[in-house]
Amino acid sequence: MRKLKHSILLFLTLMFFWILFTSLDIQEVTTGIIASFIIILMTIPLQPVLSDIKLNPKSILFTIIYFFVFLKELIKSNIDVAIRVITPKLPINPGIVKVKTKLKSPLGRVVLANSITLTPGTLTVEMEGEYFYIHWIDVTSKNIEGATTSIVSNFEKYLEVIFG
């Protein structure tokens, strides 16, 4: 039953993006259906990894919200890094901080680590259980709680609903 649920979720996601990037032309949709089925067949061995994704209305809503939260953080950090590049006199305080996550799902932790890394000014250096080591361009808090609040908490509250 789980494999069927994940195959349906994957199919719907692939078709959504296929139609988003192409058109509703019958040939395009048919090609999308065929490509989606081929991808599903190729990813059956990966399905245990995908079992961390929750499929319910709340998690779908939080996934959409997460996209916009990530986009906001991405824009904010891009502006911050750009200002630091343009204004060399602006102090930077680089360092590696240790943060803690509440996420239990391995896939959720990977998504969190990638979200942190994709945000300019931060880079996930290492994941060790519930702790991440993050290179931060401007360390404002050296304690775990402060760094976690600054770097992780905006993402984590949504990922917790999506992945558990």
Secondary structure layout:
Elements: H1 2-21, H2 26-43, H3 47-50, H4 57-86, E1 95-100, H5 106-118, E2 122-128, E3 131-136, H6 144-151, H7 153-163
Antiparallel strand pairs: 1-3, 2-3
Helix pairs in contact: 1-2, 4-7, 5-7
Task: Label the overall shape.
Answer: globular
Strand content: 5-15%
Structural class: mainly alpha
What is the element string, with H for helices and E for strands? HHHHEHEEHH
Main sheet characteristics = 3 strands, antiparallel
What's the total helix number? Answer: 7
Largest sheet: spatial strand order: 1-3-2
CA-CA gap between termini: 19 Å
* Helical coverage, percent range: 55-70%
Number of domains: 2
Unreliable residue runs: none
Instruction: Give average pLDDT, whole number.
Output: 87
Cα gyration radius (Å): 19 Å
The tally of beta strands, per DSSP, is 3
